[in-house]
Fold:
Amino acid sequence: MRPGLVVIGVAFLTLTVGTFASLYLPAAPGPSTSVHTFTGLPEPAPAKAAGSSPAIDPVNASATFLLTWRSTVDLNVSWPWGAGPSCGGGLPCAPFLQPLATWTNQSSGSWSFSGRLSGPLYLEWTNAGASGGSISFTLRQTITSGSGLAGVGGLLVDASLVILAAIGALALFLGVFLRAGVYRGPPRLVSRGPEDAEAIAAGGTAGATGPRTAPSSDGSGGPRRTPSAPPGKAPPS
Structure:
């Protein structure tokens, strides 16, 4: 076993588990919602007359819209009306698009829409009757925004966690199953003495010209060689 690798592997795995728990285990915060309400107070709707509501300028964002209106007499109502050159009195000359909803000879109505509407918007009405009355309306715009990791950011985080886990598992595996003391250093060189020089000059035994070695610290080296004696001398004991 190699304790160093075991410690590194455990550290990487602990970091991976902790990061995963901090990102995914807590309850994800719910989406945030903002509501914008535009209200038109009761306004006169005289007999044999036409008009429109004050300008409505909703927030330029994708949202859910709910329009409700009510009058004291039957009216012809269209929605929306706006975004055109002014003809005087603040009223546009023509609608910027076809009405999304119309009501004929009614005293109330409602309309809903999911998407984006840009202002200014107007509620147009026509009173074709002989009696005057009043009209009021409310436009509610609900904007919902989600939360959480973005798609690309989530993929990068997941990939990083996988890499950390793989490194930690590999280090832990090697630390547990790799035996200590497998690697040994090279044998230690021993300097020559004067007798070695004499043996080489006299043409001693084969192999005397190589470096003398001593056993390594773990006993892997070979035995120390005894130099050959020059001619006419007995070899040292």
